[in-house]
Structures are given as structure tokens and as C-alpha cells.
User: Fold this.
Amino acid sequence: MMQNDSKSFIAVLPLLAAFLAGCQSNSVTYYTAPQVTGRVLATDSHLPLANADVQWGGAGPAFEPFGPPKGGQLLVNTDGVQTDSAGRFVLPDKSVFALFRKPGWWSVTVFFSHDGYASFQTNYTGDNVTSHTPAGAPVVNAGDVFLKPVAPLESSTP
Assistant:
């Protein structure tokens, strides 16, 4: 009886392979989160802030389609970028490969910080896309992002 079961399985195997080959759900989909560009300025002087940190908000990219990053995903996350002498930055786009599900981004959180200035965090959505890179990644132009100087702590000793 066992020999008949294995013959049945072998007979069904090509039919199963043909069925799966015809399914659209088993294809690999490519997902890209936006490239974010802009400039960081001081609110009081409107001068560019060089070496300001710009990174995906929270513990990692806020656009992960399957929840927070885990294991090896944490190893490939970028640490963000710093602004140049003119305060300009380009936060690179992110790509994710997914099987059986077509992921998409609906919102990304970007975190801005600089020593001596209050940190700022904001979200960008698909409505903020202004163009696309030559490779097809969406581009969000954040424009001018202003950071407010923080008052130095006063010493409490006389």
C-alpha cells in the first residue's frame, strides 16, 4: 500500500508544479521607500546647519511592510546621513523584496537632530512625492527643515 501512495504523490507532483508556476501570487515583488532630500536650517538665523543628523525615525525605518526590523534586517539598516556645509542632505531610498505579498509604503518618519538644537521628527506620505530617481524610486523633497536652538542650561551654583 505504501508503494501506491508514493506513486500517487509522484504523479501529482508535476500537476502541483504546473499549478504553482501559473499562480501570480508566487512572484517576487520589488518595493522602494522614497529618497528624501532637503536642507536643514536654524530657525533663528535661517543659516544652514552643517553636520545635522538625518535618519529614519524610531528604532529603524518606519516604512517596513512587515513590522519592525528583526535580526539580519537590523544589520542592513542605514544609520542615516549628515548634512553638508550648505545644510543639504539626501536620505537614500530603501528597497525590500517580498514573496506572496505586495508591500507598499504609506508613510515614512524622518528624524532631524543637531547638537544645541531641539530635535524634530515628521512624516512624509505618497502625497509628498515630487519626482522619481532614474531607477524609479520615489523622491520626497522635504524642502527647508528648521531646527530651533535650545537655551543653554544655566548653572545653579552661585
Summary: The chain is about 15% helix and 35% strand. Confidence is low (pLDDT under 50) at residues 24-29, 59-65, 70-76.
